[in-house]
Amino acid sequence: MRSNRVGWLLLAPTILILAVFGIVPFLYVLYVAFHQWNPFGANPNMIYNGADNFRRLVFDAEFLTSVWFTLKFAFFAVASEVALGYLLAQLFMKDSPGKGFFRTIHTLPLIVAPIVVGSVWRLMTTPSIGIIPYLLNDWFGYDLNIGRDATSAFVITVIMDIWHWTPLVTLTLLAALVSLPKEPFEQAQIDGANRWQIFWHVTLPMIRPAILATVFIRLMDALRTVDEVWMLTGGGPGAATRYVGLHIWKLVFPKTDYGYGSAISVIVLYLTLVMCWLLYVGLVARRDRKRPS
Amino acid sequence: MKHAADLDQADEEAGTLAATPERTGFLPIVTNWFDRVFIGIYLFVALELLWMRFLEQAIPLTVCHVLALALGALIVWRG
What we know:
The structure holds 2 protein chains of 2 kinds. By secondary structure, chain A is an all-alpha fold. Chain A has one domain (59-290): MetI-like (MetI-like fold), CATH 1.10.3720. Chain A is 73% helix and 1% strand. Chain A has helices at 2-33, 52-57, 61-93, 99-107, 114-125, 131-140, 150-178, 183-190, 195-223, 227-232, 244-252, 258-289, and strands spanning 35-36, 47-48. Chain B has 3 helices and no strands. Chain B is elongated. Chains A and B meet through α1 and α12 of A and α1 and α2 of B. Chain A: One of its GO terms (biological process) is transmembrane transport.
């Protein structure tokens, strides 16, 4: 019992911080989600309206489109980051001249604030002054204009996210790869396994927890991305890059529709949890926890 | 050493208390009660949203509340 008391005492600061900055705001957002509240509207009071905000969002084409675009964005960004991050981590495992220098350079995007990343990419992709449209036009005759072409704008937002966050994936997977014991690899080599078999049957199962944790972190980040995309495209052209975080921002701040914005926030949290849980069940729980009944 | 042994024993006891029984029901994975409550809430919200989108014009939402709660209870007890 004494040990439990000490344990709770040591956990108390964390629980307190989690409650004040996590649970209480969440409960408040949940409360607001069941109200109509526009403090700068005709009636500034908070009025209980039951599930009307949720009823509104299931018919809101703009919201549903933004969810679809966000899912596409998250899928392409996270999948590319994990694949590229793994390849780079494998590269950093090998001894080569300039490895330390390249590793430092490669990690630099992580320390740049997202709003700055958005600004830099906006400068690089602005037609007539940006280096990317210039080079694409010079080399391939391709006219890149993310203010006009929806597909280009979407692809550039994905590439920007990959550029910004692949180093995080690389570092995580590098830490996982470095910590692996040598014996299973030596045994596999003695048994005559080729590189692909070693990767599939030895490396991948051993770093699966690290991959899963990285995918969770990146998936959650990608689903709530706002500032980079806001700076780069402002959600345009049209609504082509109006991801759900940006959609919520536009509802809550310029339109001050707090009730509806809160309802969408709750649903986005729900979708994020569902996706992470399905991913967990698909990759871990079914394999590790399934037992004959 | 005695202190370390006490802590080990206490940790073991705490672990035993914290562990919740896992079982296999009709769900395709082994779950504890928290997993089943979690799944119940997921399905409750999903059912409510889908009902509002496709069925509420014809069947009132109260029916969905009852069905969703029954499904949640079934998952918690038998899942």
